[in-house]
Amino acid sequence: MFAKLRSLFKGQRQTLWLKSLLARNPLNLSRWVLCWVAIGIGSGLFAGLYWSVLEWLTQWLRSFEGVSLLLIMPLAGLLIGLVIHWLGNPGEISLIVDNIHFCGGRIDARKNPAMLLTSLISISAGGSLGPEAPMVQVTGSLGTWVADRLQLTGENLRTLSLAGMAAGFTALFGAPLGGAFFALEILHHHHVLEYYEAILPAIVASCASYLIFILITHLGMAPTWAFPQYHVDRLDDFVLASLYALIGAVAAWGFIYLFNLCAWAFAKVSLPLYIRTTLAGLILGSLACFLPLTRYFGHEELNGIVEGQFTAVMLLLLAVAKMLAIAVTVNGEWRGGFIIPLFFTGACLGKAIALLIPGTHPALAMIATMAALNAAVTRTPISTTLLLTKLTGFTPFAPILFASLIGFFLSPKLPLIKAQLKATLS
Length: 426
Fold this sequence. Notes:
Blueprint: H1 2-23, H2 31-62, H3 69-87, H4 93-102, H5 112-125, H6 132-149, H7 154-173, H8 176-185, H9 199-217, H10 236-268, H11 273-290, H12 301-307, H13 312-331, H14 339-356, H15 362-378, H16 381-392, H17 397-409, H18 418-425
């Protein structure tokens, strides 16, 4: 009897001691950190599986070249249209931005099947969009799902959704800090970071996602593109980077005009959705027949621009054709994201500048133009700098930042992603 009482008393004392220890936790570690890590792990697992399936489909469809693309890509467009017709429109980045601002940060997982199927077909067939949009849609909805399980609302729910989005961006780019900031910057056209409370959750989830994605795919540790080494040792380098950025900003204006013109043209086609997606496939197939490097989103093709031998005229033609391909892909209701395609376009322009102006170092010209063009279109100067530093292995950080800021401040007042402007006006 006394032994049982003594044992019970001892157990209660140990329980109270444990609770007291947790209450006086000397570490800046809480259950929230474990929650962010869990979201990152789940996002990394999904991203690794998605990338593996995408690679397998792309290898199979890449074998079709030349005239056969006039059949394969319209057929892919038809399939995309039918999937949207049957499963519903999954939306695009503007819808995700709207959900973060106006739906309490809730990202609807019911749109995931349509997004996954349409994006896999779009990207593997050769559309000029990358996988960041489907990754962000699914991983962001994972953050929402976790928040629902924990019965969170308001700021806490939105924070977990943003952590999931950041983990999705990071898996593609292999840059935890850049991916985290991109998920937060892409939400705004004027305020670079409004939801500052989500910075640390986004970074933690991104780090976890990054490790899991590397374990699955063995990608993301080294720079993605093999740019030649360059050392900044003169003040003139910053002046040159700023001049290249001016060209990138002008190109961004041209791209936005072309994009809106393409949107107007597709809106005039009063035909069923699957006919418009098929028409987009025919246009993309025709472009790829004449300029094969405009096919796909540029993840592998950009190395061909860096290492290949091209004339300045060919590079300028590729840049314009890639802009058209991006505009047709998006407005033709194919699914994906245009960040890496914009980098490809900027690389073409930068290398053309290097060929036209003797003595210009191609690495500085390409990267500064890439930074300014992307920052001007997406309004993400900080994350563009971080991403390009990682993707290119370009160690001088400051010239990229200068170019990104110039692109950002010289961008049109009306953003391409209209949902960014709605948030500013609300």
